[in-house]
Design brief:
transmembrane, 76% helix, 309 residues, 2 domains, mainly alpha, MetI-like fold
């Protein structure tokens, strides 16, 4: 009887193990296909950026162009001042905007996470109300241009995105997971509120802050709408707005050229399709390089609320 029971148990274990291996194999295939679906478009953009216009005209966008060319990148070297300036503006906006946004978000989230804060609930409701209902585009445009005077200013690319209520709610929940006993112990030892926040709460919150920082950095880097809305001088365009401008027309080339003859020559010989892809590569490359530095914090931030046993 015992032998029969052991045989049945071994058979059941073997069956479960076989199903588990089969399921893992199917999941691995699905994940590989999903990864390829993400990687292949990026690879196609890079290949097209090194393709000649004639090749794109004859064969369309393909992984195997009939003719390779660096003409698209030579085009940007010709208008290098504008590209470098736009890159500089975008880097400044991304770095300063991310730091400023994280400072505002973490301070506000920590205050709202404290149960002993008297106005926590009313302030939270007010923030949630603004997330659901806002004044709209026209009032915000009037406030930023006529009251704050942010037209054609780099601060017009930073301040409107400096506070995201969703990120405040996420960090508020994250701060609540920190045991209050640690904060109380620091207070008993004579630490002030701000000192406790800087030296105890922030180091314990690195995964959550890094995750929100990554999202904020990507939002600032990828934003083109604020540049289109508030920036009128082409020389003050961030790189994403410059890409938008070049995708719509060659007007940006005209404004960056020294004279009309140079513009005519550039407009006639400009690699339009490969040029768009080349500028896309130049725009995407820095943010791709930033991902590995945030990866461990990003993964930990997503799993920090998981059940541990």
């Amino acid at each position: 009887m015992k032998k029969k029971y052991k045989d049945e148990e071994a058979g059941a274990y073997s069956c479960v193990n076989h199903i588990s291996k089969k399921t893992n194999g199917i999941m691995n295939v699905i994940l590989i296909l999903m990864a390829l679906a993400c990687v292949l478009p990026v690879l196609l953009v890079i290949i097209v950026s090194f393709s000649s216009e004639q090749s794109i005209f004859e064969n369309g966008y393909t992984f195997f162009p009939s003719e390779w060319s660096l003409e698209a990148y030579r085009l940007f070297f010709k208008m290098g001042d504008q590209v470098v300036r736009s890159y500089g503006i975008t880097l400044f906006v991304t770095i300063v905007g991310t730091v400023f946004s994280l400072a505002v978000t973490t301070l506000l989230s920590y205050v709202l996470s404290r149960s002993d804060y008297r106005y926590g609930k009313p302030l939270t409701l007010l923030l949630l109300f603004t997330m659901l209902f806002n004044g709209g585009l026209v009032p915000s445009y009037m406030v930023n241009t006529q009251i704050l005077g942010l037209r054609d200013s780099v601060w017009a690319l930073i301040l409107p995105m400096s506070l995201n209520v969703f990120y405040v709610v996420v960090l508020r929940t994250f701060f609540k997971s920190i045991p209050m006993e640690i904060v109380e112990a620091a207070t008993i030892d004579g630490s002030g509120e701000f000192n406790t926040f800087l030296k105890i709460v922030l180091p314990l919150s690195k995964p959550g802050i890094a995750t929100i920082g990554l999202f904020t950095m990507i939002a600032y880097w990828n934003d083109w709408f604020l540049g289109m809305l508030y920036i009128y001088e082409t020389k003050n365009y961030p790189i994403q707005t410059l890409l938008w401008s070049m995708q719509n027309s060659l007007e940006s080339l005209k404004q960056s050229s020294a004279n009309a003859l140079e513009y005519a020559e550039m407009a006639n010989n400009a690699p339009t399709n490969s040029g768009r892809m080349a500028l896309t590569v130049l725009v995407v490359l820095p943010i791709l390089c930033a991902y590995p530095f945030f990866q461990k914090y990003f993964v930990k931030g997503l799993t920090i609320g998981g059940v541990k046993g």
